[in-house]
Amino acid sequence: MSDPTSPSPYSENKRFEPKVPIELNEPKRDEITLEELAQNDGTNPDGKTWVAIKGTVFDVSKNNAYKEKGQYHVFAGKDPSRGLAMSSLKPEDCVPEWSDLDDKYKTVLDEWYTFFSKRYNIVGKVSTSKLQKL
Ligand code: HEM
Predict the structure, then answer these.
(1) 15 part of a folded domain
(2) 3-state secondary structure of 66
(3) Is residue 60 included in any domain, yes or no?
(4) Fewer CB within 10 Å of terminal CB in the chain, N or C?
């Protein structure tokens, strides 16, 4: 058990907590197709940018890192769960399939899920039978 009085940001319940508190909306449960996800890749004038992790779609529009010239644009408009798990920015790794990976990669992926869920609103779930669910 970690000491609840510890100032460390890595104590159990504060893990991946944003430095500045972020007010999030109630998660939406809209069904989002892969095509719709792909359209919201940050290259449109509306700036809408979505990233899905394990089929849950996060709205990352407020972060320029996912926009066209951003360092993490490769994740935008996709479910790049495999790339997040493997710490890979290769486009061929930025695909939804993750279930065959070793546990250590699955843990990394779950940590990214926690990181995103503390920063970004959930706009829905990817609706495709091919996507692996949580
Ligand atoms: C030279 C290598 C890298 C450097 C120097 C680097 C640096 C950074 C920095 C400074 C941040 C911001 C941290 C924060 O907001 O507290 C960040 C965030 C992030 N990095 Fe990296 N990174 C590197 C490689 C990678 C790789 C290989 C991946 C692939 C999974 C990755 C994925 C991410 C993601 C998803 C975020 C979160 C962005 C967000 O706030 O939504 N990074 N990185």
Answers:
(1) no
(2) helix
(3) yes
(4) N
Q: Using CA positions, which residue lies closest to atom 40 of ligand 1?
A: 63
Pocket of ligand 1 (CB under 6 A): 60, 63, 65, 72, 83-84, 87, 89
Q: What is the pLDDT of residues 46-73, one digit of tens each?
A: 999 999 999 999 999 999 999 999 999 9
Query: What is the model's pTM?
Result: 0.89
| Cα–Cα dist 41/48, whole Å | 7
Enclosing domain of residue 39:
25-126
Q: How many independent structural domains does the chain possess? A: 1
Looking up residue 102, the CATH number of its domain turns out to be 3.10.120.10
Q: 16 alpha carbon to ligand 1 midpoint, in Å?
A: 13
Atom of ligand 1 nearest to the CA of 83: 30
Q: With respect to residue 8, please indicate whether it lies within any of the assigned structural domains.
A: no
